[in-house]
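Teaching note: in complex prediction, the entire set of molecules is handled at once rather than each chain in isolation. The prompt given to students was simply: 'Predict the structure of this complex.' The entities are:
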Amino acid sequence: MSIAPPPPPWSGRRRRTVDVIGAAAVLGVAVTVWLGLWVTPPDQHLHDEVRLVYVHPPIAWVALYLAFGLAALSSVLWLWPRTRSGAWDRLAVASMEVGTVFTALTLVTGSIWGRATWGVWWAWDARLTSTALLLVLQLGYLAVRRVPADHEARARRSAVVALVAAVDVPIVHFSVDWWTTLHQGGTITNPNLSPTIHGAMAWTLLLGFVAFTLLFVWLLLVRYRVVVLAEWREDTELALALHERWAEGAPRAEPVAVPREGTVPAPPAGVGATESVGPAARG
Amino acid sequence: MGYIDAGYAVALSVLVGYGAVLWQRRRRLEALRDEAVARERR
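The expected output is the structure of the full assembly:
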């Protein structure tokens, strides 16, 4: 029986890196929350409702561009024969799962913000609808991952699904330009608006982007490790199950009496007494 | 500020919860891995 060897443990350096990124992410998010809720001034038009700007856009940035971009890139690298490696497949699923959590949060925080500023929880707006479709596609990807198959078949079909789903990302991004939407268009990058923003607000927003990016990296590293360990465990359990089945099957290797053609063995008493089975019954 | 607080609370609790679940899952799998390594050594 061949059982896959356990994957090597995290090296001390890698463990320290993960810990440092995790600590920086927690600190960054905590400071963002503190600045966002208590330090930054209210907006001239949105008043205190503006405070979700320090959370919602950074979460959406991670969900749409970082997580999905990484998952799509990893999928391409897996599909490309020259760069094919199990590591790309593991990175793709890790990024997609973490990204799914961020996409769900993008929708939830956006919905809460919409209720506070627009007066509705949801509108069938192009940006909102295409983001909801993205969440469905991501859940579809994760469902495809759960369909039993060998590693290669699973990686191939997942990579194809990821690339099909990636078509929705530019639609989400440009939806505010292509259609008239309730959701606002680009603000900071819009040359026609040339917006001015209070320094504390700008820095808090920037910190939010950095903090949630670090949080994504930390979650990705941990999720990647879980994928590595879960794959090893899955392979080990499969090998053990096969070994057990073979061990169970060994005594049955003895010759078994096979009924001659055209004859039907008598059923046990009380079974099939009213049924007509076999060639004799048909004739 | 009710909606804003709710937005922060939902975002933070989901992320902290997801992180904790992942961390716990990793620790459980690492324990199984350590067990397998120890078994191999024996």
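Point out the following to students. The helical segments of chain B are 2-41. Chain B touches chain A through 26 residues (CB under 8 Å).
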